[in-house]
Every structure is written in structure tokens, then in C-alpha cells.
Amino acid sequence: MTSRPARRQDRASADALNDAGLAHKAAGRRDEAARAFRAALDADRGHAPAIGNLGLVLWLQEKVGVAVRCLEESIRLGPDNADAHAALAEALLHLGRFADARAAARHASSLAPRALDLRSNALLCMAYDEAIGAQERFDAHRAFGAAAPAEARPHDRAHVRAGDPDRRLTLGYVSPDFNRHSVARFFAPLLRAHDRLRFRVACYQVGERDDATTATLRSSADAWTDARALDDAALAARMREDGVDVAIDLAGHTAGNRLGAFARRPAPVQASWLGYPDTTGLAAIDIRLTDAVADPPGSERWTTERLARLPRPLHAFDPDPDAPAVAPRSPGSVVFGSFNALPKLSDGTVALWSRVLLEVEGSRLLLKAFGLSDPTVQEAVRRRFAARGIASDRLDLRGRVAAQADHLGAYGEIDVALDPTHYNGTTTTCEALWMGVPVVSLRGDRHASRVGASLLTAAGMPQLVADGADAFVAIAAGLVRDPARRAALRAETREIVARSPLRDAVGLARAVESAYRTAWAVCCTAGAR
Hints:
Blueprint: H1 8-26, H2 30-43, H3 48-60, H4 64-77, H5 82-94, H6 98-111, H7 116-128, H8 134-146, H9 158-161, E1 169-175, H10 182-193, E2 199-205, H11 212-220, E3 223-226, H12 232-241, E4 246-249, H13 259-262, E5 269-272, E6 287-291, E7 306-310, E8 335-338, H14 347-359, E9 364-368, H15 375-386, E10 395-398, H16 404-409, E11 416-418, H17 427-434, E12 439-442, H18 451-458, E13 465-466, H19 469-481, H20 483-498, H21 505-527
Parallel strand pairs: 1-2, 1-4, 2-3, 4-5, 5-6, 6-7, 8-9, 8-11, 9-10, 11-12, 12-13
Helix pairs in contact: 1-2, 1-3, 2-3, 3-4, 4-5, 5-6, 5-7, 6-7, 7-8, 10-21, 14-19
């Protein structure tokens, strides 16, 4: 039986209900939004926008399986909807369908070739896909740079020629993540520690969400601009008007980035740091802050920016002030774990973690991440491990929890945390260490797979970094086979981290400021010619 074509009044009613759903979604009322979109579909079952919008809301509610089905149906009815293809790509990553996700993201970008956000989304999908080689990733990032707006133009450097290379500089940090987000956990220490006699610090908030973290960051900045209503051209113009000397992008190609503004070179010196583990591809960004562990000699081959290697680790971390005390592990079976995002669960990661589980008889794996409360996602994860010989009852799969204390408290159930191999954890690694859980990381061949090595070196635990899969299995198994060592690590790790460079915000600030000052001096010298 086929459904009858919708009458004009049904379509009008569906349009109105879809608009109401969008209003609820924008206000964060997801249940009401879902009801409105379903009502729109009751009026017109073929209303492609309502089906796609329902899929987006269901995705936000961690109902990944049905969200994918909605998005696929929306695309079938309206194949030219680039946003639906982009949303589908993100959902497919959580199901481990990396090739399908990459294809969806590329198709979204092809439908709207001038939309830089869709190009960024395609690059982010590539970052998770271990089937993509270094040359292909680099070429794709350079293609993004070539597609930057034609309005991009060199900054007027007249004030640089007349300026003092040693004068107080204005730093302009731009991020969509000035809120309760992992980026803020690493940015906040630097923001507080900047030398205000030598630097004025301005922040440009371009993200949708404000919260208590936003207020804390705002109070630590010398200037704060709510730039959410500004398009890229207006944001670049505002930063020029504010006299920003060094503009720093904290997002790279992650969601909500404003690389289109940086392409217009709003500041004489521009830098990339923190939010994205690869080159931006923009010729207008001069330096990328890193360290010699994350980007050893030779890494220059894969970046359009100059690598500014700090003489210390590139991260300092703010633990959650409400983190519970480290609790001793109860006796019982050995539990490995990871609280990393599911797109980081590459096939190579599944294979290596399965080797660890097979090496330690009776051990289990606890995974907690967005999407794991959905049965479809759970089944997809279980199938991937089953293909490596891991029975379903050895996996404990959990979705996100609302309370941060509960999230951190779950580390009390883990003996050893395992770092994803292709795209390492950052916040998750630091949180695990702070909660007394050692993290084992495999040193890879690019920044994204070497961040774990950088963090563990910063935390004073380089012995947990493996150079090769066999070493990874041996380190992880060795930790749990020595109960005395495991108990000692649990009791001592937080204090070790507290005394390490990972908690040295002042040291990070001086190193970062030196990198900015060096880049500024180069700019002044070039401008004086």
C-alpha cells in the first residue's frame, strides 16, 4: 500500500510544525522538538526536512540507530540536502562504518563546495579513518586552504613596521568551545598564567553554548567578545579593529571553527593550537604549537604551518575541582577501560585491545562513550570485538552520564586504561591519570597518534608508552599481573601528576609566549624590509 500524496494544507501544516520543532531544538528542548517533528510527519509522511531534523534530535538523544535510519530516509527523499549527509557521516563514525562516513562527508561537501564547515567536517572524518594515508590527508588539507575565501588578503603591516618588537602584544584566542568542553580544560590554565605586563589577552566566543565555565574564562580574560552573530568577514574585521597582534585558532577543523576568518588574516601573526591534531591547511596560519614528542623532526613534511616546538610538553591540564578522591580498586577480575569517543575506536584499536584481553585471561573491557546507551551501537561494537575472538560478556558498554562526579567515579572500576591507537585520547588520558588509573599508549606516526606519548611524558610516566604492538600488550598485561605495583600506581599517580609539567601552567605560558614573541619578531623583521 502506497501513501497518498500530501495535500497542500497538509504540507503547510507540516512546514509549520517543522519550524516549531526547529525553535524547540534551538532552545535545547529536545523532547518537544522530537514531538513537533513527528507531528509534522503525521501531517506529511514525505516531509524530508522533518525526517532529517527528527534524525538530528534523535542523534543528540543518543538514539543513534534510529537517527541513522531517519537521516538515510531524509536523504532518499531529498538527496541534495548537504547538512543531512554531513550529519549522517558523524553518526556512521559511531557505528564503526568509517568508509561510509567518509563517503557521506565528501558527498556533503560536493553538494556545497563553498561551505567551509562541510569541508572541515570531511577532514575530521578523515582524521578518524586509519585507511587514509598521510599524503592523502595532507593533500585534502591543502585543498581546504586553496578553497579559502577569495576575500582573504594580507593584513596591513604598517603598524608592525612602526612598532617595537618587544612591545606589549594583544593575543586574540578564537574558539567555539569556551564552555564545559575538553578544550577549556587545557586553555584555562594558560589563560590564567599569561604575563599581563607583556601580553593583553582577548577571547572571541564563537560557540553556541554558555555555562559556568564560560563565565570563569571571561573573568580571566582582559577582553571578551561575543562573536557568535558575526560572520567570518565581520569577525576578521572586528579583530583588526581590536588591534590583535597574534590571533590563535583553538578549533582547527572541529565543529564550529572559524577558519574562514583566519583565511582573511585578521592579525599579522596567526597560530594554531590545541583543538585539532593536524595541519589546518591554511597558508594564512603561520605557526602550529607542538612539542618534539608529538611532532618529531620530519613532521614538517605534513604541515602547511611552521612547527613551533615548545621546549616542554604542549599541554597543561586543569583537573575538575570536584573530582572525587582516588578510591582503591576492589578485588575481582581485571578490568581494562576507555572513555574515549567511539569514532576513535578504529579497527586497529579493536585488534590491539583484543590482544590485551586475550593475553589476560578473564579480563574485561569497560567502554563508556556517547552513543553506547543505544542498542544498535552496542551490537556494532560487540560484533567488531567478536571478530577478534572477544566474547560479548567480556564487554561492559555504557553511555554517557550527566554528572561529572559520576563520570570520574567510574574510573574507580578500571585497573588500566587503554589509549586508542590511531587518534589518541587527551582529556580522557588526563582524567584517568588524575583518578589514579595508568594509561598505556602506543606511539604512532603522526600527531594524533603521538599525543598520548606527549601527555604521559609530561606526566612523568614515559614507561607507559609502547613502541610497537607487542610492547603495548606486554605493558598492559604486566601492570595487571603485578598487584602491588598496580596498587602503588593507583595511590601515587595523582600526586605524581600534580608535581609534573602537566600541571605547570606557568611553564606552559612562558613557553607559548616565547613562541608568539619569536613569530612576532620574524614578522617585524619582514615588515621592516
